[in-house]
Amino acid sequence: MNTKAFNTAMEKMSQFGNDGGAELIVPAGKWLTGAFNITISHFTLFLEKDAVILASENEADWPVIAPLPSYGKGRESDAGRYNALISGTNLTDVVITGNNGTIDGQGKSWWDKFKQKKVKHTRPYLIEIMHTDQLQITNITVTNSPSWHIHPTYCKNVIIQWVTVLAPVEVPNTDGINPDSCTNIRIEDCFLQSGDDCIAVKSGWDQYGTKYGMPTKDLVVRRVTCISPDSATVALGSEMSGGIENVRIEDVTALNTQSAVRMKTAIGRGGFVRDIFVRKLRLYNQYYGFWMTSNYNQHPDDGWDKNALPNITRIYHDDVIATNVTVLAHIEGMKKSPFTDICISNVKMELGPKPNKMMWNCTEVTGVASSVTPKPCPAFVEKPNFKCEFPTDKLAIESVQLKTCSTSGTP
Questions:
Q1: Omega before 374 within 30 of 0, i.e. cis
Q2: pLDDT for 97 beyond 90
Q3: Whole-number percent of the chain with pLDDT over 70
């Protein structure tokens, strides 16, 4: 067990946080550990080739911490939640990288106990970094998390690149990358296999997320491949009460995946999802072509506001090719808060051998469509030779270039 070794290393390196920073190198081998915290800024955790940080299967090695303020409770428990395997808060300039080393959550024991309702608190994540400016997670493999794999929360200026996430496709809640109430995020060149959403964009849950009021905004997702038979390539919500805006998704491939860019919300969420730009989707063996739902009715407690209606508007899709599709579209807005300004253009979907009888199911939605095959539902006004918008400007996070720095000395 190496928990003490990791914590001791952090303590000894803390003196260098303000003097150029520090790097902890994990050499080849398997390093069993319980949860530990990154406690210093200007810090790099580097996993060498064939290095494996192996999570303890003993619950006692995972401290219980308070719920996130934007959630009000644990996602799976009225009590607290287990600390992530690797966590940190109130930091600047944190890098988790390597020569494709691995962080293995050994989640099977957690998954089994969760099914048997024997887990007392919300299951832990593998990586959760909070209230941090300049976070980079690159060139690693993360696998078998007890729950979500990578969870940047209340952060800004985040880059996640060349990351592989591997989880059994039959295990729920093993989301890949979940940016939560973050600003200026770039997720690119990643391969994600999950039993839940490959990427889930979030910003707090019902009245707690509304009160905290921190949206996820200015997000770029590109060159990502997803496998998730029971969930989404990119999910917007369902916990989106702080708002989600200015998201740009492009060059995405999904294989044997339930849905592509899925919108999930409900009465009681409040908040907004707006200015979502999607293009160049390639979907192979896809259950839903388009899926937007207002019926995701999971709430933290009885205090949620039944008058808190989400505002869903300005969601644009262009250049989508999908094969073996069962349901072309399932889009259900709310009577008191319809989904508005939804645009789909240059879309070609090929039906599978057993398509749903109601191929286009559209309620409480307005939008436009151009060059969509098969023909969309009447809720979409057809505009010939029209192309849905995709911004030409660049977000600030797109201009950041990653550089490799050399180090000297004995690890």
A1: yes
A2: yes
A3: 98
Asked if residues 52 and 29 have their Cβ atoms less than 8 Å apart, the reply is yes
In whole angstroms, what is the distance from residue 216 CA to residue 218 CA?
A: 7
Q: Is the pLDDT of residue 182 over 60?
A: yes
**238 near 205, Cβ under 8 Å?**
no
SS3 61: helix
Q: Can you tell me the distance from the alpha carbon of 227 to that of 258, in angstroms, rounded to the nearest whole number?
A: 9
* pLDDT per residue as tens digits for the range 331-355: 999 999 999 999 999 999 999 999 9
Read out DSSP for 265-319? -BTT--SEEEEEEEEEEEEES-SEEEEEESB----SSTT--TT---EEEEEEEEE
User: Other CB atoms closer than 10 Å to residue 406's CB: what's the count?
Assistant: 4
Q: Is the pTM of this model over 0.85?
A: yes
E strand or H helix at 255: strand 244-255
Q: What is the pLDDT of residues 267-296, one digit of tens each?
A: 999 999 999 999 999 999 999 999 999 999
CA distance 205 to 69: 9
Contact 336, 363 (CB under 8 A): no
Smallest CA-to-CA distance from 402 within 177, 95, 141 is with: 95
Cα 190 from chain centre: 12
Residue whose structure tokens are 């090695």: 61
Rounded Cα distance between 104 and 102, Å, is 6
- Mean pLDDT throughout 208-227? 98
Beta partners for residue 23, in sequence order: 44
**Count of C-beta atoms within a 10 Å radius of residue 160:** 26
CA distance 68 to 65: 9
CA–centroid distance for 82 within its chain? 19
Q: What span, in angstroms and rounded, lies between the C-alpha atoms of 361 and 337?
A: 17
Residue positions annotated with a catalytic role:
196
DSSP, res 150: E
d(CA 357, CA 327): 8
